[in-house]
Design goal:
The complex is a heterodimer of chains A (about 500) and B (about 475). Chain A is mostly helical and about 500 residues long. Chain A contains 23 helices and 2 strands. Chain B has about 475 residues and is an all-alpha fold. Chain B has helices at about 1-10, 10-30, 35-50, 55-60, 70-100, 105-120, 125-145, 150-180, 185-195, 200-220, 230-235, 240-245, 250-265, 270-290, 295-320, 320-345, 365-370, 370-385, 390-405, 410-435, 445-460, 470-480, and strands at about 60, 65-70. The chains are: A mainly alpha (about 500), B mainly alpha (about 475).
Amino acid sequence: MNQLGFPVLSLMLAVPFAAAIACLFSSAQTARWLALAATLVDLLLGILLWINYDLAGPQWQFTEHVDLFGRFAWALGIDGIALMLIMLSVFLMPICIAASWEAIQKRVPEYMAAFLLMETLMIGVFTAQDLFLFYIMFEAGLIPMYLIIGIWGGARRIYASYKFFLYTLLGSVLMLVAMLWMVREAGTTDIPTLMNYDFPVHAQTWLFLAFFASFAVKMPMWPVHTWLPDAHVEAPTAGSVILAGVLLKMGGYGFIRFSLPMFPEASAQLMWLVFGLSMVAVVYTSLVALVQEDMKKLIAYSSVAHMAFVTIGLFAFNRQGIEGGLMVMLGHGLVSGALFLCVGVIYDRLHTREIARYGGLSNNMPKYALFFLLFTMASVGLPGTSNFVGEFLSLVGAYHASSWVAFVATTGVILGAAYMLYLYRRVAYGEAPNAEVASLPDLSARELAIMVPLALSVLWMGVYPESFLAPMRRDVGSLLARIERANPGGDAKIAFGHRPAPAAHEGAH
Amino acid sequence: MNSLSFMMTLPEVILALGALALLMVSAYAGDRAASFVIGATVALFVAAAVSLIGPAGSGGVAFGGLYRADGFAAFAKLLIYIASAISVIAAHGYFSRLGTLRCEYPILILLSATGMGMMVSAADLLTLYVGLELQSLAAYVLASFLRRDTRAAEAGLKYFVLGALASGILLYGISLLYGFTGTTSFEGIAHALAVPPASTGIATARLFGLVFVFVGLAFKISAVPFHMWTPDVYEGAPTPVTAFFASAPKVAAMGLLVRVAVSALGTETHAWQQIVIFSALASTILGGVAAIGQSNIKRLLAYSSINNVGFALIGLAAGTADGVAAVMTYMTVYVAMTLGSFLCVLQMRDAAGNPVETIASLSGLSRTRPGLAAALAIFMFSLAGIPPLFGFWPKFLVFDAAVGAHLTWLAAVGIATSVIGAFYYLKIVKTMYFDEPAPAYAPSQSAVEGGLIALTALFVSPLGYFAIPALGAASLAAAKALF
């Protein structure tokens, strides 16, 4: 079966699912503990998975295959990329549960059940090895998220939940038609096989666009990003963490799992489209973030800008770019989640997200200010933090592909520093606007327990990214081998080792 | 030969004789026997379903080519009997609460189901018409079953007038087809149509016949643009009757349409394909858009049924065995979702026990009746075709069939229109889960109704996926019987 001797991936899906059902029938406090226990068990299983992942083994590990459904199969398996994204999901989930411990007081059993269901579906997306199983998991995630935003969200939650649901649904239904066509053409629903199937070039463009419609909305890319700020602002804190931390990564995962390997020629042809939208996103959404009055909205727009680094990196057609894109996905998953938690901490105290209502928090909340500063710096991409690695690599990759793209994208780093530091200055420094803000209590033990693991992971990823890059390296390599034939090459022809022309050298004397 | 013919029509024989016998019982025992008659009716449906195992399920042609007992008919009949039986069971509580529990209701459903059996087994235009009229006449009476209720009387009248018009159109189409092919048997028509027409005039006249037949049948499945009666009739008819209208007769009419399109007019696919495509897309779009503004749950479900019929027609538009199998699977899941939704609507009663039909009264149902809200939410997400609920699967199949028939554009447009529909299904979920609670409904009194809701909800839940291999094999076998 696999190196562990039991179907570990199915178990990882079953644990939160079973707990979700049990939660529905238990009291609020039991549901909290049940959810925490289930997510921690999944975290342990995830660690087990990482430890046992064989770097030199086959590309797809821990595979399971049962022909349950006639037309498609219960086929699971992971490569290094999926492994890392699963780790991100199972790491963030217990944090989300802990963050909702006191903030959610209404309909707790249903809330915990929705989150656990969400976890099942997220892991399902990253482990599915069957095209239709993937689609089902991918789409099904809409239901719990719709309920999370709609039931436990803020004032405009209903508008936000509709927008989230319908936007993402419209994006993904076209992908389904493309999948149906692909399966008829290739005669299999097996994703690893399809990744090596050469679709006719003329069809690839259509297929690519259909998948693009889905992943671009999910990612989200400009101009179909407008659902994200609404959803983020209205969702409860933990909902925002999951949305920014994991759900957005499904778009990037889709690009790397489907768009690039299955349609390499179309990816190369439409590279300009992706780059163009990403460049606009980096500059435009950064500028929009600069003028936001609402903290969550600001971070939401910064997410759009950061996700543009992912798309730029992934479509650079070289190792640095793709690895950089993946590292931004992981780093942003941690950092944006952490930033939403930071907002949640003060929102729980003052019940407003308006930046102007805060000030001088570093005086009365020093521990909070420290963590907030760390995550702010990580979001800016300070060396030593997780985002630096990813952003640097993807910019290097982008430079190889197109120096103009790299030029425009780099301004995003500067703008990112501007809006994040501006946010931090207004919230943490200066004078408190009133006595209420000046007397806000510092982090509680529970909140510290949430922040510390995130902070350590951010530093770990920044200082020693090799732990995260190692499992993905070979998979990126096989992706590169697959798409190399379509590589359009770049305008920056870097050549090493050429000395300056001797004539010029002599002329200087 | 005749005894074999009778064996093949055994389900109809059982239902017809049973209905007559029960009519006698009710004539002598009066409405006191209503509960017994309901029980006996369900037993008759079970017996009819069991009889499908014999020659009635696979016997072939009976009565000199008038009637066909094949896998397709058996599949549709099984579905019809299950749906009819559930409508009968669901009605018991509803009518007894209103004090109008009468023996005629189950008997009319029996007669209607007999007609439906004839429809899906029709191999000749005459059987088709007789079956259709038997089904419709019983249905007209059912619509106005609460005769003191003006809404029900209006619904019955509307249904009758428009139904008669549709029958007339259908009959005109039949006469044209007969006139230009010289036969009423499906097989004969198919042979005659395979011969190229002698002149363009004849070709046009044949086309006219075909169009009229399709119009008549489109009325029966309430496909746009012949859907106008549906919301009014669904709203006015008593809820158990609406549940019945939305399920069994839809299956029968769809089965009939498929059989006529494939067996009799299979050589003219290019001619009817565009009609079906237009009707399919118009139904999915109009069914979606018009439902948005509804405030009555029964009207909303009426538009939902129009919407769903549109998706099923996409499978027929493919014109392949895959497509027909997809249509049959669609109808199977559709029946479960629709009956489940209407069973939930039956639970909507105010504190005094009077039926409530406004969507607004569902507000905050998730807090007053969590189980009912969860079931209705499952049906709504399922009708919207959101995976992992089972309502996704039939949509998947019809779009797959369309892609397989090189109608990828149709699949793409059709699936995009499904997003419109998702909006109003979400509205119900929003009302139940996001809004503040309205006054609670009266508690459920019947364990049977609760059990049926749970059963249908389980079928459309992700557990339904385990039925895919069996359902796929059965529907494909049914479809193969036509090709």
